[in-house]
Amino acid sequence: MNHLWNLIRKELKELLTPASVISIVVVAVLFASLGGMIGSEVDKATELPAIGVINGDSGALGDEAVGYIEDYYGAGFPDLVTKMTSSYDDRDAIMNEMNDLGINIVLVIDSGFSDDVLAFAGGTGTRGGTINIFWSEVRTGVFGAVSTAIVYDLISYINIRTAQSLISGYYPGDAENVLSPVAADNFTVFNGRVFEGITPADISAALQSQSLLMPLLIMIVITMIGGMIISSMGNEKENKTLETLLTLPVKRTTIVSGKLIGSAIAGMIFGVVYLAGMYFYTSSMSAGGTVSLENLGLTLSLIDWTIVAAVIFLAILSALGICMILGAFVKNYKAAQTLTLPITVFAMIPMFVTMFADFSTLPAVLQVILFAIPFTHPMMIMNNLMLGNTFMVWAGLGYLVIFALLTIYITVRIYNSDILLTGLVKKKKDKKGILSLFTRRN
Predict the structure, then answer these.
(1) For 174, which DSSP code?
(2) Alpha-carbon radius of gyration of the chain
(3) Confidence bin at 402 (pLDDT 50/70/90)
(4) Region 68-72: what's the mean pLDDT?
(5) CA neighbours within 13 Å on the CB side: how many for 292?
(6) Kind and range of the H or E element at 133?
(7) 219 closest CA partner among 156, 267, 281
(8) What is the pLDDT of residue 109?
(9) Whole-angstrom distance, CA of residue 66 vs CA of residue 51
C-alpha cells in the first residue's frame, strides 16, 4: 500500500505542477471572464435603442404612427424616444441633429404617409406609407444585427396597429381579433408527461447547458490529460527515469495502478476547475428560456450525481489506459507529441455529434460506432439520466468498466514486457510480435 501511495503522490506531483495548475486556473478564469463579457454584450444588444422621430406627414395616420412608437417603448422608457425638429427631406440636417443629440437611429415618417397607406389598403396604391430609417452606427460581432432586428420589430408593431386602425370601421372594437382570428395552444409530450404551454424549443433551451457544456468539458479534459500522460512517459524514457522505476522492487501492477489513479485524480481536479469556468461561459451565452429543468421535472438525485461522477472517472481512466498504451511506443518527448492526435480525434468525434444531433435519431451504424467510443458516454450521461434512458445509462456504465479493465490489463502486460525500454515489441523466435503481450510467459 505504501508503494502504491508513493507512486500516486509521484504522479500527482509530476502532473499538478505549479505551472500546470496556474495555466488551468488562468484558462478557467478567462472563460468565466469571457462569459461575463459576452453576457454584458447580450444585455446591451437586447436593450431598446434610443431613437429619434420625425413626422413629415400632415395626415392623421402619421400622428398615430408616432403614438404607436411611444406605445411600443411604454411608460418605462419615455426618454428613449426623441421628437426631432429637422425637416423630413433634409438629410444633412437629420445627420447633424443625430450627432448633436447622440442618437444612432431615426425614424422619418415620409410626407403623404396617410394618403399612401389608405390608397394601398384600398387597392389603388402600389406601395404603402413609407418610414425612412437613418442609421449612424454599424456594430460588428455576433450581436451587431440585434438592434436592426429590434427596429424592424417596431416597424411590424406599427403595421399591426395601423391595420387595426384601418379595419376598426368595419369591425368596431374587434380589430385585433380580426387580425389574429386563429389561436394556438401547445401540448408537448416529453419524458412520459404532457406539458401544456411548452414547446419543444423551450425544452431544448432548458437542456442546452447539458448538451453543450458536458461534451466540451469532457473533450477538453481528456485531450489535456491524455497529452500530459503521453508526454510524461516520453520524458521518463528520455531522462531514463522509467528504467529506474522498473528496476525497483515494486510490482508492475502497483506501478500501473499508481500512474492511473494519480493521473485520474489530476484529471478530475482539472475537470472541476474547467467546469466552473465553462459553466459561467456557457450560461452567459444561453438564451435563458422561460422553462427551467425543475419545471420539467428534470432534476438529478444524489445517486444520479454519483453515477455521473463514476462515468466521468471511468472515461478518464479509459483515456489514461489508451494513452499509457500509446506512450509505451514513444522513445522521447518529441515523439510523444505526435501520438496525442488519436486521443484528440476520438474525443472530438462524439463531442460534435452529441452537440448537434440526438443519439436516438442517428443511423444504427453510427450509434454503434459512437457507443464503442468510451468518451461518448460521459457526454450523454446527464441527458440520459434526466430523460430516463436507463438502458443507455447502465449499458454505458458497464461498457466503460469493461473498456477500462481491458486497457489496464493491456497496460500491465506492456509493463511486464520489454517494450517500455525498447519502444518496440521484441521479436521472438515464434514471431508472434505484439501478440506475445497476451500470452503467458514460461
Answers:
(1) -
(2) 32
(3) very high
(4) 88
(5) 3
(6) strand 131-135
(7) 267
(8) 92
(9) 12
Domain boundaries, the chain: 8-33+200-438, 50-181
Cell, residue 146 = 440585434
* pTM of the predicted model as reported, rounded to 2 decimal places: 0.62
Q: Please, what is the average pLDDT of the chain? A: 76
Sign of CA dihedral 48, 50, 52, 58: positive
* Distances in whole angstroms, Cα of residue 315 to Cα of each of 319, 398, 401: 6, 12, 9
Q: Determine the Cα–Cα distance for residues 287 and 233; give it in Å rounded to an integer.
A: 44
How far is residue 374's CA from residue 315's CA, in Å, rounded to a whole number? 6
Under 8 Å between Cβ of 111 and 56 = yes
Quote the pLDDT of residue 54: 92
Q: Is 278's pLDDT higher than 60? A: yes
**173 falls in which pLDDT band (50, 70, 90)?**
low
Could you give the CA distance from residue 177 to residue 441 in angstroms, rounded to a whole number?
A: 87
pLDDT digits (tens, 9 = 90+) for 106-135: 999 999 899 888 888 888 888 888 999 888
Contact criterion met (CB below 8 Å) for 94 and 54:
yes
Phi, psi (degrees; rounded to nearest 5) at 43 = -60, -45
Q: How many residues does the chain have?
A: 442
Q: How far is CA 122 from CA 91, 176, 335, in A?
A: 31, 19, 79
Would you state the cell numbers that stand for residue 258, as one nine-digit string?
A: 499508481
One-letter amino acid identity for 407? T
Pairing of the two strands 187-190 and 81-83: unpaired
CB count, 10 Å around CB of 134?
17
What digits encode the pLDDT tens for the residues 290-329? 566 666 767 778 888 889 888 888 888 888 888 878 777 7
Q: DSSP character for 406?
A: H
pLDDT at 399 over 90: yes
- What whole-number distance in Å separates Cα of residue 319 and Cα of residue 224? 11
pLDDT(195) > 80: no
For residue 73, give the amino acid letter: Y
User: What's the rounded Cα separation, in Å, for the pair 42 and 53?
Assistant: 26
Which fold does the domain 50-181 belong to in CATH?
Answer: abc type-2 transporter like fold (3.40.1710)
Residue-wise over 37-46: b if at least 16 C-beta within 10 A, else e?
Answer: ebbebbeebe
